[in-house]
Amino acid sequence: MTTDTHRSSAGAGSESATTDRRSVEERRQQLIDAALQVMADHGLAKATTRAITDEAGLALGAFHYAFSSKDELLGAVIEQVVAEIDAALVRTLGAAEPRADDPDGRELVVEVLHRFLTATWEYLESTPQLQLAQYELTLHAVRDPALRHLAERQYELYSATVSRALGTLTGEIGAQRADQLARYVVATIDGLLLQWLVEGDDEAARARLTRYLRTLPAIVDAHCEPVG
């Protein structure tokens, strides 16, 4: 009887611990989603802990139950945004098969980059407020030594995702040049995006993207040849 009671008690404790962990994880996710929504709607400056908990439908005290500080929450938000955008990049890059009429693979690289940039721009155009929030978060992280590694990881991850895809397409681009090309492409789309967010001119932004897409063969060639 004592053994059975002990097992029952231990089982109840284990179940309670699991429930508590799940509760913390659920609240953390609620607050992450709420913080992102508040920032997308009103900007980082308005993303107070009260505004975030109100958006999440939680009491203010629930915030410190899930996060030790607002910066910890912002770090979690950055990690989620980076993971989501990286997943979107992977989807837009897609798969590509080498062609017999393209022995060095350069045309295939251009084709994949064209598809990637076109699909990525469609995604960016559909989420302008999210992109504004991401810029604010990135700049906030760059200014904070404790969070700066998240901003650095963000761009490392984006570049690595594109670089890996390009590196499988042709032997003309080694790992180092694939990385350089990927960083160039990420930097360009970043600049186009920021200019569009500032100007708010969809037609002009698409025209700039179209002109950039036309230069892709020259850009790929430039990254296949030695510099100097």
Gist of the model:
This protein has 228 residues and is an all-alpha fold. The protein has helices spanning 2-42, 49-56, 61-66, 70-93, 106-126, 128-143, 148-167, 175-199, 202-214, 216-224.
Explain what you see.
This protein starts with a helix and ends with a helix. The protein has 10 helices and no strands. It is mainly alpha-helical and 228 residues long. The N terminus is likely disordered. Helix 1 packs across helix 6, helix 4 packs across helix 5 and helix 4 packs parallel to helix 7. It has 2 domains: 67 residues, Arc Repressor Mutant, subunit A (Orthogonal Bundle), CATH 1.10.10; 159 residues, Orthogonal Bundle (Tetracycline Repressor, domain 2), CATH 1.10.357. It is elongated.
Main beta sheet: strand number and arrangement? none
Structural Rg: 23 Å
Which topology of the largest domain does CATH recognise?
Tetracycline Repressor, domain 2
At the first level of CATH, what is the class of the largest domain? Mainly Alpha
Poorly predicted residue ranges: 1-10, 14-20
Looking at the overall shape, the CATH architecture of the largest domain is Orthogonal Bundle
